[in-house]
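Subject: Sanity check before I submit

Could someone independently write out the structure tokens for this chain? I want to compare against mine line by line before I put it in a report. The sequence has 182 residues.
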Amino acid sequence: MSVVDLMLLGFLHDKPMNAYEIKKEVESKNLVWWIKMSSPSIYRNISALSDKGYIDGETVREGEMPEKTIYTINQKGRAYFSQLMEQYANNPPKIYLDFTATISNLNHVDSETGQRILDNLYHTFRETQKILAAIENSYDRYQAKAVTQLNQQMYDLFCNWIAKFKEEFYGTSITENEGQEL
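---
Independent answer below. Compare away.
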């Protein structure tokens, strides 16, 4: 059971697709900002879903093009999709914030390095937030826009937290990339 399976089955709920089309959908919808999903995991999970009987594949050839397999979700796949929806609603996965390992170890670096690390984290998160804001209106579906907004708010929260932490831990403000305080 994986969130990748949930997303792939969701795509196939919309329409039959081949693995390459699904990969392109993932890329065009910037889903890597939402969940951990790589191209290899798409192909691997599509193959596993097919092997387990959750999706049906039909091999087709259009003209001189190579054969491709078009996948459709079947009844067993719809049941699995519903099971995954319930599972993630009833037992949401833990959220791991890998950057907190850096925060936890700031006492092992000198003050100048620690402050630079916090500034870099802040600016990286702020830049990510700007990217999300730029792509938010590219989505047609309300759910996609809402999830993008959620991620923007999360990055804003991280930035505010880092700024406050730096102020309390080092007594200094976040600095611009050129060394000026914000």
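---
OP: Matches mine. For the report I'm noting this point. The longest helix spans residues 142-170.
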